[in-house]
Amino acid sequence: MAPVLILMGSQSDWPIMQNAAQMLKDLGIAWRAEVVSAHRTPDLLKSTMVQAERDGVPVVIAGAGGAAHLPGMLAAFTAIPVLGVPVPSQHLKGLDSLLSIVQMPKGVAVGTMAIGAAGAANAGLLAAQIIGSFDASVRERVVAFRTQQRDAVMNGPELELPES
Predict the structure, then answer these.
(1) Three-state secondary structure call for residue 134
(2) Residue 159 pLDDT greater than 80, yes or no
(3) What radius of gyration do the chain's Cα atoms show?
(4) Domain 4-155, architecture per CATH
(5) Span 102-128, pLDDT tens digits
(6) What are the contacts of 132-139 at 24+ separation with CB within 8 A?
(7) What residues does 85 pair with on adjacent strands?
(8) What is the pLDDT of residue 4?
(9) In the predicted model, what is the mean pLDDT of residues 64-69?
(10) What's the pLDDT at 157?
(11) Would you say 10 is a known binding-site residue?
């Protein structure tokens, strides 16, 4: 299977988007990352999606800040699931990015994640869950991850709560 494609509007998005890569790595899923700008390299954006279709990429994770057009523009060129990660911006802390990604017009779907690192990590997890819907070994790794999370909470230290 082709690797999950992680795209970002600029290299400065990598500190956030590396959380998606780490989640995929932790779940044993191959990925590759590239910089493709919706505004500065529109021809590259289109050719990247044409190649992703040819390669059989199962899921695209796209991080973008500010105007955040990248996830929607990618989705316009493919039927591959696109997961959008709002990257925090300097002035509006990612709210602008979130609103841009989540407000897709009817007929062009983008799965929108939370702003920032948690959203990127969850994009990696959701990509694994999508792949796990047709690959039993990936589904087993996702279930094991979720079991580890549950066990960490259940077996954590006991809290001494004040009496009410």
Answers:
(1) coil
(2) no
(3) 17
(4) 3-Layer(aba) Sandwich (3.40)
(5) 999 999 999 999 999 999 999 999 999
(6) 135/1, 138/27, 138/28, 138/29
(7) 63
(8) 98
(9) 91
(10) 82
(11) yes
Per-residue pLDDT band at 49 (split at 50, 70, 90): very high
Give residue 110's pLDDT: 98
Q: Are 96 and 120 in contact (CB under 8 A)?
A: no
What is the residue extent of each domain of the chain?
4-155
Distances (CA, A) of 116 to 15, 69, 79: 9, 16, 25
Q: Is 141 assigned to a binding site?
A: no
Q: In 3D, which of 108, 60, 102 has the Cα closest to residue 80? A: 60
Helix or strand (DSSP H, E) at 16: helix 14-26
- Map tokens 């191959």 to a residue: 30
Phi, psi of 89 (to 5 degrees): -105, 165
Half-sphere exposure of 133 (CA within 13 A, CB side): 7
